[in-house]
Protein 1
Amino acid sequence: MASASKIKPFAFERVFSQHSAADAAKPDPLILQGEVETLRAQLDRVELEKDMALAEARSAGFEAGLAEARAEREAAILAAIDALQAGIEQIAEEVDQAVAKATAEAADLALAAADHLAGRAIAAAPAEMIDAALGRVLEQLGRNPRLQVRVHPGLVEEMERLIGVRQAGDRRRMHVHVTGDETMPVGDTHISWDEGGLRLDLESRRRAVREELEGVLG
């Protein structure tokens, strides 16, 4: 009995059991490789999503910056156009004022020149000027015209001579009677006929010059 109480269990079973537990706790290489590949795939997907998000953010930022730059450019262009338009309007107004002033001065100068030239022409050859007006009247009349010509008394003799010269060169028989009028300034005349009349004086010349200047100078 004493020998039976000293018998110990065989250690093989205990050692075997320990080896079995260690083997069970050791991970399977195939499983580990699959998990690693899964993690790598997840990391790749996360990296791809991060790159896509970053690219999208960059694109959105670029578009926003481009839109802001375009808006600023358009605002600058509009401001420049407004400033240019205001400058053009101011220049146009100044030009209009300068043109109006120059036109008025030119009209006054032309009128003064016309008065001066007319005065010199009257002083140099007053009868010839009246004869030229008489010629224009005769061109509008028909056969055998009858006219009355009133001039300054000092021009009667010269006018009769000029009318004789005109009659010699015209096939029509003209009846032109020259009368002296003290109220007529030298160079002025009043030519009348049955259907109308013509008055030639300094004021009418001035009026004709003004009308001509208004048409030319606006």
Protein 2
Amino acid sequence: MTLLIRHSLLLMFLCAILGFLFPSASMALFPFLPFVLFSLMTLTLLGIDQVKLMERLSRLNIWLYTAFHSLVLMLLVGVIGWLLGFSIELGLASVAIAATGSLFATPAIVRALDFDVMQAMAMTIATTLSLPIVIVLTLLVYQTEAIELDWVGYCYRLMIFIFGPMLFSYCIHKAVPKVVLNRFLSKITPYTIFLVFAFPFGLIGGYRTLFDQAPWIAFNYFLIATGLCFLFFGLSYCVYRRKGAAFAITAAITSGNRNVLLTYTIAGSLLGPAFLPLAGAIQLPTYLLPVISRWMSNRAKKQEE
């Protein structure tokens, strides 16, 4: 078990490959991902002091990062798409991914690298809360039809996946003695990373379907998705490098991981026909980034010694 935890970042990437190789199993897991998501958020938040988390969310640098994560990268992706001659559908899909908040699995990935989980959690929540606003901006630019976002559904999901786990964690911290809770968390926290394995495996099955039907189109989507993923990761790392390697890698991981499933749930068909194939194609590069992050982290630690 210890060996699996040690190599968990590589295993996440392998899960994406397995999901591509076994699309039926991948699509069978897909409906259960919201339950996995809730469990992951709850266990992650249980290990975080809620007062400190709210204090971190009140900091200006978190919201400046959020503006960079969405607005700046949206503008950059839109300009690149225009220069490369993307169609309206592909341009909309690309900018919508740039508008997407960070994956809820990000704090667990950051914990596996021994970085600041609180920082990653604050960034994840802030980018998720900004999602409805930036998605509206995206649709205003790329679509002329009336915008009818599922606000009730979005608020419902916020309550379940953000405020619900936060409230549950707060109540547990108040009701359970700190010594007992810390003993429980010390035993279970290292294993929360295994819940992350479900996401790359369960989200890529739809992309495999496109690959079987039109392999050349699927390959083009993969190239674009890979370019987007590494653009988000690399640019974020460069922008925040002056704050130190740990902060820069945390920002890069948070920016590279995109919760495309939540974005699609909110905006649905308004995102156009290119969004879902692009969202599936981005799974492989997304879960390759933590492997690269591990290498970067080890290299940074050696340079500091």
Protein 3
Amino acid sequence: MIAALFALLTVTMGLNYFQRTTAANVLFFFTLALSVYWLKFHATSQLTIQL
């Protein structure tokens, strides 16, 4: 998931480089929302070890 988030941010930087700021802003806020979702539901969940 982290790799996907970094890839989306890389695409966002590429869009900004090619002057596509509206698409870059939309993609940036989408990536930001995914980051918050990942942090809230996956990074803070308890680890379960089944022995």
